[in-house]
Design brief:
Elements (H helix, E strand, L loop, with lengths): L1 H13 L27 H14 L3 H5 L12 H17 L3 H4 L8 H12 L4 H10 L19 H19 L6 H8 L7 H8 L2
InterPro entries: Copia-like_N
Protein name: Retrotransposon Copia-like N-terminal domain-containing protein
Pfam families: Retrotran_gag_3
Length: 202
């Protein structure tokens, strides 16, 4: 019985299929994905990073499916060691402007969730780029009401145009406003232009 328990506790040292296994040659400064994560390549970076982590059997750390054992658990320290390794891999695969927003987060899964929230919320910057490129051939929504408009399409069109103006304004801001810019982009619905100005210049 004692031998079986000891074997289970030391399995991560020799079994490469164990998610807590770390090969002696694995380097915390390793860059798993290139190009580095920037403001405009998150979908591809996310896919490539998951593939890279899966090959190392460490994707569970970012997906949150391998939770931290209790402090009294003999494997707690090993989990923390692997978690720090994954955090370092994530950090070294980001540009400095992105890394500074997550450098104090102590869980790989929380970093992953933060990045998904930051970049996956409708990918509004990319949408704005496409809208700008297609502006000349875009078919504008039309009201089909026979007399006075009652379908609300005009207010919807105005809201879309206002949002486009706000997004273009945010894209033109300097990097010093990157944090508040991200906060505004995550708001649902997006604030009006006056509210956006007040948030920027607080």
């Amino acid at each position: 019985m004692a031998n079986s328990i000891q074997t289970a506790l030391s399995d991560h040292l020799v079994n490469s299929a164990n998610p807590l296994f770390l090969h002696p040659g694995q380097n915390p400064a390793l860059v798993l994905v290139t190009p580095l994560l920037s403001d405009n390549n998150f979908p591809q970076w996310k896919h490539d990073m998951l593939v890279a982590l899966e090959t190392k059997n460490k994707d569970q750390f970012v997906l949150g499916t391998l939770t931290c054992p209790n402090l009294s658990d003999p494997l707690h320290k090993e989990w923390c060691r692997c978690n720090k390794m994954v955090i370092s891999w994530l950090a070294h695969s980001m540009t400095p402007s992105i890394r500074k927003f997550v450098m104090w987060i102590e869980s790989a899964s929380e970093i992953w969730r933060d990045l998904c929230d930051r970049f996956s919320n409708g990918d509004k910057f990319r949408i704005a780029d496409l809208q700008e490129e297609l502006q000349n051939c875009k078919q504008v929504l039309a009201c089909s009401c026979s007399i006075a408009c009652s379908c609300g399409i005009f207010s919807k069109i105005q809201k879309e145009r206002d949002d486009d103006c706000i997004i273009k304004f945010l894209r033109g801001l300097n990097d010093e406003f990157s944090q508040v810019r991200s906060q505004v982009m995550l708001m649902e619905p997006m604030p009006g232009l006056t509210h956006t100005f007040s948030l920027i210049f607080q």
